[in-house]
Amino acid sequence: MTVSYDGSGYSGYQKQGGFRTIQSELERAITEINNNKPVEIYSSGRTDKGVHAINQKIHFDLNMDISLYNLREAINSKIPDDIYVKSIEEVDEDFHARYSVIAKEYIYIINLGEFNPIERNYVYQYNKPLDLVNMERALQYFVGEHDFSSFTKPDDSKKNFVRNIRIVNLKKHDNDKVTITFVGNGFLRYMVRNMVGTIIEVGEGKRKSEDLYDIISSKDRTKAGIMAPACGLYLKDVYY
Amino acid sequence: MTVSYDGSGYSGYQKQGGFRTIQSELERAITEINNNKPVEIYSSGRTDKGVHAINQKIHFDLNMDISLYNLREAINSKIPDDIYVKSIEEVDEDFHARYSVIAKEYIYIINLGEFNPIERNYVYQYNKPLDLVNMERALQYFVGEHDFSSFTKPDDSKKNFVRNIRIVNLKKHDNDKVTITFVGNGFLRYMVRNMVGTIIEVGEGKRKSEDLYDIISSKDRTKAGIMAPACGLYLKDVYY
Fold it and tell me: Which residues of A touch B (CB under 8 A)?
């Protein structure tokens, strides 16, 4: 199923203890529909606390005589209105929302204009100008296959940190907002927010765009910039 | 001062009992800054529960040796982040945020596309197509000086219901959203939401655009359509 959610009221996607999470709300709803026989769901990946999703993809197994239309209606009627199931379709037995992913698209939105209280949870309120030309230049260093250790949690030491970023794009809108898009075969934890935070430091003139080469090569989290806030980040699409 | 706020967490602008309101948050902050000597504030008008403001105008008297810059910083540091003082300027003794108003501008935003949980508190989630051509036609009937009794609370029987609407405009955006703009010398309680609700019924084909003539002439609230939800409404500007 394709699910959109406002992450601002949640402790992230992933189920954890008594916290309010997207996964637990959806599992509770689907389990109820399944006559309280527990159903586990699998997403394309977790999103962190405060991060939003436009088209998160989730799969689950359900052995039940119900139309996809009615199932969708039933789930939407049982979840809070800050989560919404946009569509449900049947998939092959071997499809897995996480392991079948070919690429993911994230967008990050920054407001360079004055503080906007109405969008405080949905757009990073940077509220100052940035050198977008240099930011765009710096962004290009991310394209291709790299070890992204500099942009993830340093203690995640057992994983493979190589990811392939295929598309980066920076777009300035008329309303003083900037959208940065990343498409890649996968993203490490905090990777997009750490990339954006580093790019912002280029936009502030604290770093040069060429510095990105050394930052990436160092494979050292302490060489990159600070992490940008969660509120500006959206999981936009997942490709299979 | 010019103030923007996200109305979704408030019981409206106006102070009332123990409820969380915009006025009470601002008065509390300014009173604190004024060494706890009570300060009362006066807005261009109240906004109802759930209604937002982009540029609400508010005046107050403050006898204090503080720069406008520091005053603004101080207020913003003492109010929740869903309210924001954009600017403060000194005004003449005879200026009154409410009585000096020449015109007000409201916008109402409707989403004709699929339900968007991220914007559920900021855009009316109508989520179906509407006949925008007929809606635009119907809107024109509001322009000019009319008695707007059909579009306000029927029990407000002692007031003058004549208002002058100068500009109406309907704009379709690329993203399936529609913005309806109203500029007028004043608006009665619920007037914009009742006008929008009635126009939507034209867009649904339940009423003809020409019906607006009779609805306005009747001065009868029961002849108009239902009230559109608060979340789509923004007080955009106040003109003096």
Answer: 4-6, 52, 54, 81-84, 86, 114-118, 120, 122
Residues of chain B with a CB closer than 8 angstroms to some CB in chain A: 4-6, 52, 54, 81-84, 86, 114-118, 120, 122
Q: Determine how many CB atoms are found less than 10 A away from the CB of residue A147.
A: 15
Looking at this predicted complex, what is its ipTM? 0.91
A75, with CB counted inside 10 A (0-12, 13-18, 19+), is buried
pLDDT 10s digit of each residue in chain A, 240 long?
999 999 999 999 999 988 999 999 999 999 999 999 999 999 999 999 999 999 999 999 999 999 999 999 999 999 999 999 999 999 999 999 999 999 999 999 999 999 999 999 999 999 999 999 999 999 999 999 999 999 998 765 667 999 999 999 999 998 999 999 999 999 999 999 999 999 999 999 999 999 999 999 999 999 999 999 999 999 999 999
Half-sphere CA count of A215, side-chain side, radius 13 A: 26
Catalytic residue, from B48, B82, B92, B94: name it.
Answer: B48
Residues of B in contact with A5 (CB under 8 A): 117-118
**Domains observed in chain B:** 2-87 (3.30.70.580), 103-239 (3.30.70.660)
Condensed to tens digits (0 to 9), the pLDDT of residues A102-131 reads 999 999 999 999 999 999 999 999 999 999
Region for A183 from its dihedrals, namely left if φ exceeds 0, alpha if ψ lies in -120 to 50, beta otherwise? beta
Residues in chain A within 8 Å Cβ distance of B115: 84, 86
Alpha helices in chain B (DSSP H): 22-33, 68-78, 132-139, 191-203, 211-218
Tell me: the pLDDT tens digits for B145-201?
A: 999 999 998 765 667 999 999 999 999 998 999 999 999 999 999 999 999 999 999
Interchain CB distance below 8 Å, A54 and B118: yes
CB atoms within 10 A of CB B48: 18
Would residue A48 show up in a list of annotated catalytic residues for this protein? yes
pTM greater than 0.80 (yes/no): yes
Q: How many CB atoms lie within 10 A of CB B182?
A: 23
Alpha helices in B172-220 (DSSP H): 191-203, 211-218
Q: Which two tokens stand for residue A227?
A: 């992490």
